[in-house]
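It would be a great kindness if you could assist me with a short task in structural biology. Thank you for your consideration; the sequence and its tokens are set out here.
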Amino acid sequence: MTRMLDDVAGRRAPRPKRLVRMLWRWRCAFLALTVLATVALGVFGLGVFGQLSGGGWTPANSESARADAALREHFRSGNPDLVLLATAPKSVDEPRAAAAGRSLTQRLRTDSRVQHLDSYWPQGEPALRSRDRRTALISLRLLGNEREVTNAAESIRREVATSTAPLTTTAAGRAVANRELEAQSQQDLVRAELVAAPLILFILVRVFGNVISALLALSVGGIAVVGTLAILRALTEFTQVSIFAVNLTTALGFALAIDYGLFIITRHREELAAGRDVGEAVLASLRTAGRTVFFSALTVTLSIAALLVFPMYFLRSLAYAGMSVAALAGLTAVLVLPLCLLTAGHRVDRRRGSPPPGGRHRDSAAVECGQGFFYRTARIVMRRPLVTVILVTLALLIVASPFQRVEFGLSDDRALSASSPVHQATEVMRNGFDARATAMASIVLPGLTGSPSAPKLADYARRVSLAPHVLRVDTATGSYIGGSLRTPPTPLSARFSGPGGDWLSVATDAEPYSAEGRELVGVLRAVPAPVPALVGGDAAALVDTTAAVGDRVGEAVAIIGLVTFVLLFLFTGSVLIPIKAVLVNLLSLTATFGAIVHVFQEGHLRWLVGGFLVTGTTDTLLPVLMFCLTFGVSMDYEMFLLSRIMEEHRRTGDTAAAVAVGLERTGRLFTAAALVIATAMASMATSHLTPLKLLGMGLTLAVVIDATLVRMLLVPAIMKMAGGANWWCPEPLRFAHARFGLAEG
């Protein structure tokens, strides 16, 4: 080993050889340092679970967010953090129930954690009592940041659950919903890993026929995931991190890292089977597969980085998680894994000299590959390339067609399962109460204060009450219905006015995430106001989020397209191949989006993912997230396939033969890799949270489509049709590739 590594005398060794030489010389120190660092990062990263947030769906600087902040700061009102539903055996007005309700209200009013409280007791506000008179509401705004509010809401819920007889209390509101989302996310994470880890290990053992190789591939994923959890824990000190970032980290981390491990270990075993010793095999694997892994990890990292253009911390925190785990998976695969391969020697193979799972001796590939399934598939496809392209494209467009009916919404309590106590309590509010208690919009008029402004406020409220779907407008000057003052000011009306201005509470019969709800927001924002108005509420949050996504999605697509083109050009030296990759990925992603609408928005085939609540909408942020993730991940297979096609093309100069041999060499490899990724992502679809179900199923479907219809059929057909044009490059770009390109050696 040492003689082989030191055989370059009098000249500087190539970088892969210098790296392997350094790893071998300091192998004990590197292994010890890797183990110690992994343990330390693991201990630190475990603290992330107490620091995650459940929100981040709406831009912090949007009009709806500013309206909510103004209500909290100046009026101690707005959407409550916690809503307690107090249910009496007969009626909330029965003496014993009313006395318990007044006692509970008074106790909460003096609680240091409560900023503001609205209760049915003692005033008996009809909007806060259910139509059957058995349930009343107590709405609370709590003090502190998001984490403090969530903890306070959970504590209050537990305290009142056992001390309000004869009333029975349940809880709703965004704070307890966030707590339940966090708890369910952690439970789903444990269950998903218990399901996925044995299956992935089984798949790897079947692929390699060797437990040591399988464990080495898994170890790459473990190190990447542990490191990313530590990074997320550090980020929580500076910014909010979504609870879904951890689920994405584990699923994507193991999927990518095992992909990279598969590619390097398979190439290493192939070189061993070709007669190289261990050191030479590691060097050859780093020069070839290692460089492909480097480009793949870089492509995935930069594709996910496109999520940073969006102002919602939900997407930003998932970008931090995805970028970190992709980069760490790539670094671990090219730094730690070679050291493990050097140490393991021939034990990574079934038996010394046995053929690797991805192919035979490379010098006889053109002859022996002709007997393989993937070689024969490529040859069949390339006999009728145009027919193949037309048929596959039509099939993908048919699957994509439901995406034309997409209706965007945002996740709410219905993201939880039907058995969730928070969801059940919110359903009681949604169906059992007057619309004024549940379906609300808020209009804040900063700076409009004092009695001289009362006529302007009254005139504005009348005009707002005439808008379609508006049932009632409550203001400091009274309540308006259909353009008329129906109820003069009462003591409760004082809450609509303060030193920061006035605000209006708008009751509506439009569902917040419906087309009517979005139209109503536009109508309200178009009503001339005496001062610049801020329209808030759930419908306004959806409108603002959709607008933010729409404003920036072009920028994200441009970033991903540019990254894909530049990196694939540097990898291949071709202009056509990167363009083909972008177009084919867009086609397969559109098909995935169509399937998501068909299943999650319209409710067809939902038994495939264990059932969920159908809302008739698709979360506006998840397709964006899937686009960036899947575009990057699909480049794994593109680069794995292209690396072998280019290697064979350099050897023979025959494009058709290169495509067939390249597919035969990598077909089993990327099929196994796709199976691993699909298993990891499908385990996420076992979640009880609808967003994770959608993300898991969507990514699984995207990977399956990419590994079958795209890589096995579309890519060979298109490359056959292009022929020699696949490798065309204008002279200036050819010079740039010669100067900056980095292909397999």
Summary: The radius of gyration is 30 Å.
